[in-house]
Amino acid sequence: MNQSVLVINCGSSSIKFALYANPAEPAPLLTALAERLNEHQPSLRIKGAIEYQGDLPADSGHKAALLSFIDRCGSVLQNLQGIGHRVVHGGELFHASTLIDDEQLQRLATLSPLAPLHNPINLLGLELCRELFTGVPQVAVFDTAFHQTLSESAYLYGVPYEWYEQDAVRRYGFHGTSYRYVVQETARRLNKAAEDCNLLIAHLGNGCSASAVLCGRSVDSSMGLTPLEGLVMGSRCGDIDPGLIEHMQRSRGLTLEQTMSELNRNSGLKGLSGLSNDMRTLLAAEAEGHEGARRAIQVFCFRVARQFSALATSLPTIDAVVFTGGIGEHAAPVRQRILAAWRLMNFRLDSELNNRHGDEQGRISQPGSPLVMVVPTSEERMIALDTYQLIAAN
Ligand SMILES: Nc1ncnc2c1ncn2[C@@H]1O[C@H](COP(=O)(O)OP(=O)(O)O)[C@@H](O)[C@H]1O
Ligand SMILES: CC(=O)OP(=O)(O)O
Ligand SMILES: [Mg+2]
Predict the structure, then answer these.
(1) Which cofactor is recorded for it (predicted)?
(2) Which domains does the chain possess?
(3) Most buried among 16, 142, 290, 302, by the most CB within 10 A?
């Protein structure tokens, strides 16, 4: 029997695909990455059972990338047992992974305003796949699910309590599927049970967040009601004074919609550098003396260090500081600068290990230093396992 499951992980600037043969086999049959979507030079690369690399038409978005991937894979995607989708915001409606039917799709649509860069494209993926793969079960796996255990002190804002009771205004936390995977994987590498691990984890991709994990469970996270709060990201501002919104209305006459769009799409690394939301581009530009790139990377690193320090409030001890996500896994100089910016903690990195992204355990720190690790995430693997589990249970 064909047991293959396709996973679709729509990020804000990319789509990652993975096709798994069965639940016991962790290595996917194929993986694919469509990146720089809606930016210059979007591209698609497929590896494994099918090999392909090429540019997508200029300014291609998520829909074009999805259709191109399905078209290139052809018969490999026949007789799928299920499709697992990353969905960023589950709000107060979804607390765990869910099989998606018409009714759930409608409930999901109400959450789009809470994650404007993500939920609409997550929905698009679900709708498109329901249309193209008729009868194949579709599962939604939520970024917010792992953060159901946030402490009350961490999830409440200092606003009228009835906003929480009546309007679900609270901090949710995102990238939870990634944190769930990284906690398990870090525990395995440390030879410990997840329940015995206290960790600070930074997921640094195009969207960036950090989380405090106490006894294997998320107790605080930098993202809030929406994925705009917290760290400086590719194009998102992270923490700001909400008074800024009124200020921009008065000083430039910006409408609420215009300011929100600027904060989501033209801020962060992109806004600070005036150059790009992409860390690779910024590191290369900084090396050539680009002042905006230097500035953006410096603020980025400082904010991660400051967030780590704040999250440490929730932990009695720290077994490891863990980096994951595109930047966290690959940008050695960024990791080094983040840890140097957290001045109270005397981290000493092994520069050789940092440059090759860790030893077999993922360790990049020297013996005697607080432990720092690089642990590559696999949201796709986690989504596939949830999908298999839900299909088997139904
Ligand atoms: N080798 C690298 N060095 C520095 N940054 C990198 C490298 N590879 C990827 N990145 C950065 O990772 C970010 C994308 O992370 P990723 O987790 O793939 O994104 P998304 O949030 O869209 O899933 C980009 O800023 C990219 O520049
Ligand atoms: C929640 C979020 O920011 O996701 P991504 O990193 O994929 O943009
Ligand atoms: Mg991502």
Answers:
(1) Mg(2+); Mn(2+)
(2) 5-142 (3.30.420.40), 191-374 (3.30.420.40)
(3) 142
